[in-house]
Structures are given as structure tokens and as C-alpha cells.
Amino acid sequence: EVLTKASIPVMGHLGLTPQSVHKLGGYTVQGREEDKRRVMIEDAKILEDNGAFSIVLEMVPALLAGEITKSLSIPTIGIGAGNLCDGQVLVINDMLGFDERFNPKFLKKYTNLADTVRKALSDYSREVKAGTFPAAEHSFK
Prior knowledge:
This protein is an alpha/beta fold. It has helices at residues 2-5, 34-49, 62-71, 92-95, 114-130, and strands at residues 11-15, 54-58, 76-79, 87-88. The protein has a four-stranded parallel beta sheet, with helices on one face. Strand 2 (54-58), helix 3 (62-71) and strand 3 (76-79) form a beta-alpha-beta unit.
């Protein structure tokens, strides 16, 4: 409320919060238990009532995300929250496959750039060490 009254836009974030991953025991779905489900619905309304312009719902059961979405007049953006939110988001590094080890259920990798990035970094390192980069065409006179 203090932020929105100071004209600072606020986007709420409910469910899994990345800064709490280790405290929560990893990437686990949030809001499955009835008491936590109720609290999340209440928190969403509190965020809306206090001026949030939208809310991210992360790793929340799809039906709960849909219930929250229907109960609000502000948009919800899902990440691992099913298709009943108003919009969707994925972290670009994840959807482009930069990390082969990161594979949560909600993530769809649209390509695998890990090998391409590794090769580019290796080529760059080799050229810098060999003194072939930067070349004249990459330098100013």
C-alpha cells in the first residue's frame, strides 16, 4: 500500500517465490493444502485492494490459479500455474535451454541453446588467448 500510494507500480507474486526456494525445500507446488489455498486467495485480494496492478502466480495448482484469477479485477500471470491465468511468462534463459539441468515440470524448452552458447564461449576464449580477437575490423583507428 505504501508503494502504490507513492505511485510506485507493484506487481504481486504468490506461490513459489524464487528467493524462498531453499527455505521451501526446492521447487515445490504451493497452495495444495486447504489452509494455504485460503491464505493465497486472501493474499491475492489484499494485493489487489492495496493497489497491485497484477499478480504473478508461480507453481500454483491450475484450478487454484483459475479461482484466484476469477476473483480479481487485475490480471494474473502464470508460471507453472496452468492455463487459467490471464497471461503466461517463462524465464527466457529457461525457455531457450541455457541450463540443461533445470527442468521443472512447468517449463517448456523451445530450443536448446546450451551447446551453442558453450561453443561460442569456447571459440571466444580460444581467439582471445590466441590474439586473433579483437582483430583490426573490431578495433578503432
